[in-house]
Automatic annotation (TrEMBL):
Topology with respect to the bilayer: Multi-pass membrane protein
Phylogenetic placement of the source organism: Bacteria, Pseudomonadati, Pseudomonadota, Betaproteobacteria, Burkholderiales
Cellular localisation: Cell membrane
Keywords: Cell membrane, Cobalamin biosynthesis, Membrane, Transmembrane, Transmembrane helix
Function noted in UniProt: Converts cobyric acid to cobinamide by the addition of aminopropanol on the F carboxylic group.
Annotated protein name in UniProt: Cobalamin biosynthesis protein CobD
Membership in a protein family: Belongs to the CobD/CbiB family.
Stored PANTHER family: COBALAMIN BIOSYNTHESIS PROTEIN CBIB
Keyword Cell inner membrane: no
Recorded metabolic or biological pathway in which this protein acts: Cofactor biosynthesis; adenosylcobalamin biosynthesis
Transmembrane segments: 13-32, 67-88, 94-111, 171-192, 310-327
Keyword hit for Membrane: yes
Organism: Ralstonia flaminis
Chain's gene name: cobD
């Protein structure tokens, strides 16, 4: 028995049980939503903050700061991944169904489909009600840009961008890693993604220290982001989505957000990107998508696209399960 090889995912369980674990995790998220208290990621965030404060204390050369950041990442993440692998191995010894239950629970804590809807849909409602102060306040909770003086279109654009990008990060990437490596893969991805959100800044404090967290998150998201972009394209205006992905995504600073948002914007035929204000300074970002400027209706359309993509992925897992049984 070893902890080096995760137990779970298609390799260990087969398509049928993985599809069942994915469906169960998605349904748990839809029925229960985000855990209001004692969420594991809140506790992990506190651990990560303590580790960062203990290790990222003095200005250092860039190379050394990167090494320290990588070691801090390993200290924060690997014990939890090894624990998840141990639990998966132990439950597998008891029953494959126990592994399915573990995978479903891990996915439930990692996925954020309902939370995404619960945070973004009220922005559309506020814009439809012409309540700009409320729309600004709600949108400012999910994006880092300055929306204190924004009118309808920048707020709607921020919400649509957040729905499309976080659909990939918070929904489809956890599903992907569930299929690949079960609960240990989900834990690895979710903790790495959390550290990227906490440490992956390009400022004086984190330029070196957060380098490893940002790069590891890029690697873990590379395949899921492109599968998400393809799914968005298939479920909307496919030709526009593929053209926007090909032409516009390379101009975006993030190697994974670019394909996702460009394909999503093209699929919806809505304009995203462009100027956004950060800390009082306007930042000129590349344009994404095509067609009309974003509106409140497009926020709901973006959320609907994410929801359809969830069911597409679950349907594909179900189809893979049926095919594998027929071929067995």
């Amino acid at each position: 028995m070893t902890l080096s090889v995760p137990t779970g995912g298609v390799t260990d369980l087969g398509w049928s049980l993985v599809a069942l674990a994915a469906l169960a995790g998605v349904l748990l998220d839809r029925l229960l939503g985000e855990v209001p208290r004692w969420h594991p990621l809140v506790g992990f965030g506190r651990v990560a903050t303590a580790i960062e404060h203990a290790t990222n204390r003095k200005p250092a050369a860039l190379a050394w700061s990167r090494i320290v950041g990588l070691l801090a990442w390993a200290i924060a993440v690997l014990p939890f991944v090894l624990a998840a692998s141990w639990f998966a191995t132990a439950t597998h010894a008891a029953s494959a169904w126990a592994v399915v239950a573990l995978d479903a629970v891990a996915l439930y804590f990692a996925i954020g489909a309902r939370s995404l809807h619960d945070h973004i849909a009220p922005i559309a409602a506020a814009l439809r009600a012409a309540d700009l102060p409320r729309a600004r306040a709600l949108a400012s909770r999910i994006v880092s840009r300055d929306l204190s003086e924004a009118v309808d279109e920048p707020i709607a654009r921020a919400a649509v961008e957040s729905a499309l990008e976080n659909g990939s990060d918070a929904v489809f990437a956890p599903l992907f890693w569930l299929v690949v490596a079960g609960a240990p893969g989900v834990v690895l991805y979710r903790l790495a993604n959390t550290l990227d959100a906490m440490w992956g800044y390009r400022n004086a404090r984190f330029a070196g220290f957060g380098w490893a967290a940002a790069r590891i998150d890029d690697v873990l998201n590379w395949i899921p982001a492109r599968l998400t972009a393809m799914s968005y394209a298939l479920l909307g205006h496919t030709t526009d989505a593929l053209r926007c992905w090909r032409r516009q995504a390379p101009q975006w600073s993030s190697p994974n957000a670019g394909p996702v948002m460009a394909a999503g914007a093209g699929s919806l035929r809505v304009q995203l990107g462009g100027t956004a204000r950060y800390e009082g300074v306007d930042e000129a970002r590349p344009l994404l998508g095509t067609g009309k400027p974003a509106s409140a209706a497009d926020i709901n359309r973006a959320l609907a696209l994410v929801s359809r993509t969830v069911w597409l992925w679950l349907g594909m897992l179900g189809a893979a399960a049926v095919i594998s049984r027929n071929l067995a």
